[in-house]
Design a protein that fits this description.
Blueprint (H helix, E strand, L loop, with lengths): L6 H19 L8 H13 L3 H14 L4 H13 L3 H14 L4 H13 L3 H12 L4 H17 L3 H14 L4 H14 L2 H14 L4 H13 L3 H14 L4 H13 L3 H14 L4 H13 L3 H14 L4 H13 L3 H14 L4 H13 L3 H14 L4 H13 L3 H14 L5 H12 L3 H14 L4 H7 L7 H17 L1
């Protein structure tokens, strides 16, 4: 027995190729068996020498004219040469010789898809599936999933994968694929029933537990999804995707400590990813551990340096700590990527407002209302800034603009009143205030927040009291 098991095969192929070259050149007599021709054709095909492969197939068919397998090989080569119609013609001949060869349907499907005849390809495979059983049937079902995917009949893709798993519950390829298509088609309830059935037969399938968890997660049953993922990682403690999804489920349940534990496990098992560091940062943010949140946001930022959102999130951790100058540095970095991003400008305006740098604050808050003229928050922050900066006349004008741009939001009538009081125009201010109270007295809290000392004005106090009594009497 040869020490090298491949030496004989290589030697046999070399001899076949030599005989083929003799036959090709017409020098001497050579005879090659059908199986030998198949080896020669596959050799040329693997090397993408399709013209040589085609010539070999034609010589083989001339010698073995009733071989359907050789005709199918030739048809497959013709597809590689983009001679699709010719390929289909050859396959018709092959079908007359043997209609039970699975390769006939697979190659014919490839030709039809190449001609953009997806529906015809689907019809062909649907009919062919009824002719086969076992592995061959499953192979055709996989082919059919690709056809349905090609012409975007995604529910049919799910149906095919479901059929495969009903016949072969351990098919890893189908288990991997159906997880994606469950999420894409939203057929979570069906997926739950399918995977429960699979697990009844094989409770040790880590992929089935994972898919069950993903389906539960798809319908927001996060506790059940976590239970399924825990079974999955119990069977495979290195299943990083299960830890990843489990982390997301814990976040949805606002169980941030448990989420961090799951996500840190992902970092142990796989290459570092910015989305994982960002998610951990988010958890610490929610737990008000801003230093740890910032640490992980920075880790995320190092891995994806062009993501301005990370610099914004870093800035918010500084803002939550009152570190306004540090927040400004991070926000300025974020603005280098997106100069007119409204959230970044709004945050910068708030920082400068806290530092009583009203000119800078007005600049950035002005950007916000220009970019989003219908957004209330930008106008409210700008008006607060103008009030604190004692720019009362400008404030009244901007309050009128805000009222116009935001479809007459009542809060800006309260702002008009506040600016008029600040300018000493109490009579007109009281008229605006009363008009606002008539419509919605609950907004009075925001009016008082603008200037709490307004409650020292007895006329204001009496007016507020009157409409509170009026509201109570209606109840």
């Amino acid at each position: 027995m040869s020490k090298n098991p491949y030496r004989h095969d290589r030697g046999e192929l070399r001899e076949l190729l030599q005989n083929f070259q003799k036959m090709r050149s017409g020098k001497g007599f050579s005879f090659i068996e059908e199986e030998g021709f198949e080896q020669i054709i596959e050799h040329f095909t693997e090397k993408e020498q399709f013209i040589d492969a085609l010539e070999a197939s034609e010589m083989a068919i001339a010698q073995f004219s009733y071989s359907s397998s050789l005709l199918i090989l030739k048809a497959d080569i013709l597809i590689s040469l983009r001679r699709y119609e010719e390929s289909l013609y050859i396959l018709e001949k092959a079908e007359l010789l043997d209609s039970n060869d699975i390769d006939l349907y697979i190659v014919k499907t490839d030709a039809l898809l190449a001609l953009d005849k997806q529906e015809e390809a689907a019809y062909l495979l649907e009919a062919a599936i009824e002719l086969f059983e076992g592995e061959e049937k499953i192979d055709l079902l996989f082919e059919l999933t690709d056809v349905y995917d090609d012409y975007e009949n995604f529910d049919k893709v799910f149906d095919c994968l479901k059929l495969i798993l009903e016949q072969d519950p351990d098919s890893e390829e189908a288990l991997y694929k159906i997880c994606f298509w469950t999420d894409y088609t939203g057929r979570n309830e069906e997926s739950i029933k399918l995977h429960q059935s699979i697990l009844d037969k094989n409770p040790f399938s880590e992929l089935a537990w994972f898919n069950l968890g993903a389906a539960y997660q798809g319908i927001k049953l996060y506790e059940k999804s976590i239970d399924a993922y825990q079974y999955s990682v119990a069977l495979n403690e290195k299943f990083d995707y299960a830890y990843r999804n489990m982390g997301d489920a814990f976040i949805r349940l606002k169980k941030y400590k448990e989420a961090i534990e799951s996500l840190e496990k992902v970092l142990e098992l796989s290459l570092p990813e910015y989305v994982i560091y960002e998610a951990i940062g988010h958890c610490y943010d929610r737990m008000q551990n801003f230093a740890q949140a910032r640490f992980h946001y920075k880790k995320a930022s190092h891995l994806n340096q062009e993501d301005s959102q990370m610099h914004y999130k870093i800035a918010t951790t500084y803002m939550n700590e009152g570190a306004w100058q540090n927040a400004i540095k991070s926000l300025q970095t974020a603005l280098k990527f997106h100069l007119l991003q409204p959230d970044y400008n709004l945050a910068l305006g708030r920082c400068y407002l806290e530092l009583e740098n009203y000119d800078e604050a007005i600049t950035y808050l002005g950007n916000v209302v220009r970019i989003r003229p219908k957004n209330l928050n930008g106008w409210i922050e700008l008006l607060k800034c103008l009030y604190k900066g004692e720019l009362f006349e400008e404030g009244f004008e901007y309050a009128a603009m805000a009222y116009e741009h935001t479809d007459s939001k009542l809060i800006f009538v309260y702002f008009k009143s506040a600016f008029l009081f600040a300018m000493g125009q109490s009579k007109q201010a009281l008229i605006y205030l009363e008009n606002a109270l008539i419509v919605n007295p609950r907004l009075i809290k925001q009016f008082i927040e603008i200037n709490p000392s307004i409650l020292q004005n007895q006329q204001v106090v009496d007016l507020i009291a009157r409409y509170k009594k009026s509201k109570s009497s209606k109840k």
